[in-house]
Amino acid sequence: MISLIQTSFQDHFGSTPLISFAPGRINLIGEHTDYQEGFVFPAAVRQGIWIAIQKNGLPVCRLFSLDFDQEFTFELKAFSPKKGHWATYVMGMVAQLQQAGYQPEGFDMVIGGDIPVGSGLSSSAALSVAIGTGLSGLFGFGLPKKNIALYAQKSEHLYAGLKCGIMDPYASAFGAEGKALLLDCRSNDHEEIPVDLGDYSLVLVNSKVKHSLADTAYNKRREACEESVRILAEEFPGITTLRDIAVSDLEKVKSLLPTALFPKAKHLITECERVHLAAAALKSGKLDEFGRLLKASHLSLSHDYEVSCPELDFLAEKSWEMDAVLGSRMMGGGFGGCTINLVRTNSLASFEEEIATLYRKEYGIDPDFIPVAISSGASVIA
Ligand code: GAF
């Protein structure tokens, strides 16, 4: 990919660029908890987004996307990011930098990547983090990774309309080879935990579906949590998010919340606990326990939080029935994308064959299988 992007840059702009890379992410467990300042357990993967960038001495930015085979130009002094266009992610990061007092000059940029479309590996966060890393490197801004992650999150809020948490850009920025990040989304600090899976491997199954209204449903879930906090704050003084409530208080929470809100709050509260239990299980090599928690997370996301879909439920349920699988669950925002599966390494081929046959028969779709290699976070690489 590096040589492809370098060659493309030279063909389009005729100079030698700086190259930055930012990876996609998986999430072991801790779904829909980040926007309630909860705990998540993501890791960066090998696949990601590469940016080639160089100053052009002009008042404009000239972009080329390898994926879309498209050019786009905008003026640094007057631009308006539009939802749904790939160049919006570039303009969004430039706008964030300008607001923070940094002044990028005109630049040329080529963007390329190898994150499977719609897989839920968070290509948009990787794109924003790669852009932030590239701009920082090119103009010598020396931006801390945390700032890049926060600008990426804000850009997604403002220009893509998704009121996401910090997990995706954080994992892309801070990822570490062979390690997952136990991230506290209140302090925005993390502990690196080695992912040693012995005879097991992680593999993603891409359902290849993405149901519409996913973004609307995402924002609604977030609002439901905020509404619960407003109601609960009278009886739990001092709480600011659902992360502040213990599992032992669930009965009290149930008595205070309307029927429609309680299951959503329950997911948040129990999922934060599962993250800690899963991190402890991984540290002590208790993979059975880790797998059990993946299943519990899926059931909670599907039944209580209602962000799964029939295809993801089918993939997870069929996986739970297999001897070679210790755990399986939907991963990411939901309504499509991937499941993450902990599968005995010497049974990976039969797992994939069996799942593909079952899924094809039920939905007429050939799922994709994506092996997981936990890798380093964003950097300037050339
Ligand atoms: C999406 C969001 F972008 C994340 O912030 C997170 O909430 C995730 O869904 C669900 O855990 O990837």
Automatic annotation (TrEMBL):
Q: Which species is this record about?
A: Algoriphagus oliviformis
Q: Which residues form the active site?
A: 168 (proton acceptor)
Return the protein name. Galactokinase
Binding annotation for Mg(2+): 124, 156
Q: Which gene encodes it?
A: galK
This protein's pathway reads:
Carbohydrate metabolism; galactose metabolism
The catalysed reaction is: alpha-D-galactose + ATP = alpha-D-galactose 1-phosphate + ADP + H(+)
Give the Galactokinase N-terminal domain ranges. 8-55
Family note: Belongs to the GHMP kinase family. GalK subfamily.
Has keyword Membrane?
A: no
Q: Which UniProt keywords apply?
A: ATP-binding, Carbohydrate metabolism, Cytoplasm, Galactose metabolism, Kinase, Magnesium, Metal-binding, Nucleotide-binding, Transferase
Q: Which residues bind substrate?
A: 31-34, 218
